[in-house]
């Protein structure tokens, strides 16, 4: 599919992309770029990449350049990469916020390099390349956010790539994507962290945690994710996150009022609606049952 792929950032997502590319024979050569030399050595040992190099050495001749670094440094890496890009190189990212990134990328890049915003809706609570999985994207939704300036051949190549990973492809406008992930990804993380902090603030936190069962663990699982990464995500998508917080607060106040007023009907109605929507949620992770 590709002759040469360069992955900047070989952590969980970049590493999983590298594993899928190598084991599914989707690229002849995969080059890893990462400021953490220890992480690069692990990537080499795990077969995630064929070799490791600097941007200057890795990028010339690349068909595909994947920006898989934390969202807070993605634009900086892209800017550093520009002098070494080969005409025709397709560039994509894996970040969960698109608006400003795409705007700046289209301003910075030469016309003969093609940027397509990308976001594989997959992940784990672990970080680093040692958590990488070839099947991380099997059954997942892979979102692309083309604009009027996006090269058609570039988006088509990336769609083929995503399908080869076992993913379902969805195209969204950048702003539409950012609003959607604020509600179904960023808000849940904020709520999980807040729920844990609510318990942590209690004088009997230790005793409460001893009682914590599956409900608390399931509701707060994502609070165990990388804090610095989520700081950057929440601040980068600040406007949409704040809008989703306001929408959640309204729903919470509706339930609160039903309890205050001892309104059985409204309370049950809200709980039934939530249950029905939750039961309709499609399972899009093929590997979940195999994770211990």
UniProtKB/TrEMBL annotation:
InterPro entries: 6-PGluconate_DH-like_C_sf, NAD(P)-bd_dom_sf, PDH_C, PDH_N, Preph/Arog_dehydrog, Prephen_DH. GO terms for molecular function: NAD+ binding; prephenate dehydrogenase (NAD+) activity; prephenate dehydrogenase (NADP+) activity. Pathway: Amino-acid biosynthesis. It comes from the Bacteria. The keyword Oxidoreductase applies. GO terms for biological process: tyrosine biosynthetic process. Keywords: Oxidoreductase. Signal peptide: none annotated. PANTHER family: PREPHENATE DEHYDROGENASE, PREPHENATE DEHYDROGENASE [NADP(+)]. Belongs to the prephenate/arogenate dehydrogenase family. This is Prephenate dehydrogenase. It comes from Desulforamulus aquiferis.
């Amino acid at each position: 599919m590709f002759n040469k792929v360069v992955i900047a950032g070989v952590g969980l997502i970049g590493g999983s992309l590298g594993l899928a590319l190598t084991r599914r024979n989707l690229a002849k050569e995969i080059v890893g770029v990462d400021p953490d030399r220890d992480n690069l050595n692990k990537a080499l040992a795990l077969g995630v990449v064929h070799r490791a190099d600097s941007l200057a050495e890795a990028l010339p001749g690349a068909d595909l350049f994947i920006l898989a670094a934390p969202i807070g440094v993605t634009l900086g890496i892209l800017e550093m990469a520009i002098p070494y890009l080969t005409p025709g190189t397709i560039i994509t990212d894996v970040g969960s916020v698109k608006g400003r990134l795409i705007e700046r990328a289209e301003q910075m890049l030469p016309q003969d390099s093609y940027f397509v915003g990308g976001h594989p809706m997959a992940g784990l609570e672990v970080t680093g390349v040692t958590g990488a999985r070839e099947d991380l994207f099997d059954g997942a939704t892979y979102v692309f956010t083309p604009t009027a300036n996006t090269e058609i051949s570039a988006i088509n190549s990336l769609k083929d790539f995503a399908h080869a990973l076992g993913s379902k492809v969805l195209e969204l406008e950048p702003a539409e994507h950012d609003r959607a992930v604020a509600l179904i990804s960023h808000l849940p993380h904020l709520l999980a962290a807040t729920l844990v902090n609510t318990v942590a603030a209690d004088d009997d936190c230790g005793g409460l945690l001893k009682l914590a069962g599956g409900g608390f663990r399931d509701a707060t699982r994502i609070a165990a994710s990388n804090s610095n990464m989520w700081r950057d995500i929440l601040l980068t998508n600040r406007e949409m996150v704040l809008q989703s917080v306001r929408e959640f607060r309204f729903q919470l106040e509706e339930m609160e009022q039903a309890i205050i007023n001892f309104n059985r009907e409204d309370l049950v109605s809200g709980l039934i609606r939530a249950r029905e929507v939750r039961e309709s949620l499609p399972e899009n992770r093929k590997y979940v049952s195999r994770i211990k």
